[in-house]
Amino acid sequence: MTVTLRVVLDQLVAPTSRDLAEASASLTEALIATAPRGCDVGAIVPSPGIADDEAIAGLSSETRLSMRRRELAASWQLGVAPGIGKGLIHSPTPLAPLVRHDRVNETHQIVVTVWDLRAWETPEELPKAEVLAARALLSRVGKHADAVIVPTHAMAERLAEVAKSKLVKKVRVIGGAPAAGLRVPSDAVGRLRALDLPQTFVVAAGGSAASDALDVAFSAVVASGWEGDVVVLDVPEGDEPAIADLASAAGLAEGRVHARGSLDRWDRAAVLSHATAFVTACTRADWPWRAVDALTVGVPIAAVDTPVLREVLADAAALAPSDGLGAALTRAVGEDAERLRVLAGDRAKGFAWRASAERVWALHAEL
């Protein structure tokens, strides 16, 4: 008898985040590749299903629901999940058909993944409806999920501060990884040209939200004495003027700052591969997607010293408190550059979806 692990792949049908979509696809591919004997992997998706260009080879089945993602999310947040059926369900995000079930007698288990706690750490930066929805969903996770995956021990500790003890007992730590196949493309120079970017620069990431701390990153660039350009990735649409204002307030001329939105994995790799360094001052407990990308392509990193970044980056980055980030960046672009490049490549080997998938299978077996 074959046991099927069904993965919730709403992000491949109607993505709310490029990072979550890439993580969902990458993990599913790894789950298929590492499936134990007698097991396979299926999908649960909203209407209209996964498009041909997003299809994942090796899926044994597709439970296609009648609702589109927005309606499906609203339904699941209320605990209404028709058409799901029993079995092993894994969600690479917090969204899952969380209903009361008997794991032992019904052979039905549900595992979800939490990548950030923005609705608790910085609720003022999100729409009120999004905050309420995230908090309501985590409440259902605490009641009905059999396990909750977080990517770092630091986030597990932060989750313990904001969640009920009943949920905390279900937490397991399984790290994330860069998008499957992330590497420097052969046409990197052409991609930079298409993005209208210079050949040499320092990279940062985030928007004008206070928790992204771009003002601290910009101040660090000035303090480091870096005289080149700065490229900012993941800038929300319409946030460009605010980014320019932050840069100007820190002492960076507007012409030196290039704001770009969410880029696909190949454009990101192209940009990061030409970066002299990556700098981040974000203090949230989020999984640091761009910092892990930077590790993967061997970019020297200067980062504010937080529990999450210390755990993920370890000695592969120049870590410093916010007021010392400029000195850290000076080292990252200067005397420590080559050492940090080597350490970044070594550290990146510790983040792989295949290893995460093997731990996911082990977790479901444990349950």
Structural summary, described in words:
The strands form two sheets. The chain has a seven-stranded parallel sheet with strand order 3-2-1-4-5-6-7, sandwiched between helices. The protein has a six-stranded parallel sheet with strand order 10-9-8-11-12-13, with helices on both faces. Strand 11, helix 11 (289-296) and strand 12 form a beta-alpha-beta unit. The protein is of the alpha/beta class and 367 residues long. The chain is globular. Helix 1 packs across helix 15 (353-366), helix 7 (188-194) packs across helix 10 (265-273) and helix 8 (214-224) packs across helix 9 (240-250). The chain has 15 helices and 13 strands. The longest helix has 17 residues, at 128-144. It has helices at residues 18-33, 69-77, 118-121, 128-144, 153-162, 165-168, 188-194, 214-224, 240-250, 265-273, 289-296, 307-313, 325-333, 337-348, 353-366, and strands spanning 3-8, 39-45, 62-64, 88-90, 109-113, 147-150, 171-173, 201-205, 229-233, 257-259, 275-280, 301-304, 318-320. Helices cover 40% and strands 16% of the residues. The mean pLDDT is 93.
Task: Note the topology.
Layout: E1 3-8, H1 18-33, E2 39-45, E3 62-64, H2 69-77, E4 88-90, E5 109-113, H3 118-121, H4 128-144, E6 147-150, H5 153-162, H6 165-168, E7 171-173, H7 188-194, E8 201-205, H8 214-224, E9 229-233, H9 240-250, E10 257-259, H10 265-273, E11 275-280, H11 289-296, E12 301-304, H12 307-313, E13 318-320, H13 325-333, H14 337-348, H15 353-366
Parallel strand pairs: 1-2, 1-4, 2-3, 4-5, 5-6, 6-7, 8-9, 8-11, 9-10, 11-12, 12-13
Helix pairs in contact: 1-15, 7-10, 8-9, 8-13, 11-14
